[in-house]
Amino acid sequence: MTTLLIQTEQIPLTVSFPALVDMSNEQFYEFCQANRDLRIERSAKGELIIMPPAFSDTGNRNMRISQQVANWADEDGTGEAFDSSSGFTLPNGATRSPDASWIRSERWNALTDEQKASFAPICPDFVIELRSSSDTLTGLQAKMQEYIENGAVLGFLIDRKNSTVHVYRPNHTPEIPEKPETVSGEPELPGFVLRMAKIW
């Protein structure tokens, strides 16, 4: 039986649907197509996680984050930036939608047009997750570790509640600066600096 987690910014609700047992990648894609107003993820165990549109405050901060990543990507020219509506199928089978992400051009361009038009089978090189009011810190920490284990070389977990940013890198304990004014992406993302003033 597939587990369906319906999450709002107030409370998560878990519901089981026998009809969703062993949903294939194609069926999952069709399910997402039929529910375009929702942001849907799938864990490596096949659990579906349904998230409605973010509250306005969270959406504003997500946009500030994506804007900075996209501006840097345009100037840097070595990769492609993606917003929170982009889904990726990780090597472990999970389908995730980071709040912002970036992929090196050579990796992105190695995918077929068909793969790019679906939930691309690739883990972004860089991911950012912004903790919302309903997110547990441990849950997001596990998600960040999943990104790193599946190929990400850098990840930022922004925890506004505790005024911290958790910086993830492979084979390193996360660095956790408290209420930093900026967070650097060096050396993985040369020249990228996330300015936090409008995100806090």
Task: Report the total helices.
Answer: 5
- Overall average residue pLDDT: 89
Tell how many strands the DSSP assignment holds.
13
Q: Could you state the CATH homologous superfamily of the largest domain?
A: tt1808, chain A
| Poorly predicted regions | none
- Oligomer status: single chain
Count of domains: 2
Helix content: 25-40%
Alpha-carbon distance between the two ends: 40 Å
- Note the overall shape: globular
Radius of gyration: 16 Å
Q: Do you know the CATH architecture of the largest domain?
A: Alpha-Beta Complex
Strand content: 25-35%
Class from secondary-structure proportions: alpha+beta
CATH class of the largest domain: Alpha Beta
H/E element sequence:
EEHEEHEEEEHHEHEEEE
What fold name stands as the CATH topology of the largest domain?
tt1808, chain A
The biggest sheet amounts to: 5 strands, mixed
- Strand order across the biggest sheet? 5-8-9-10-11
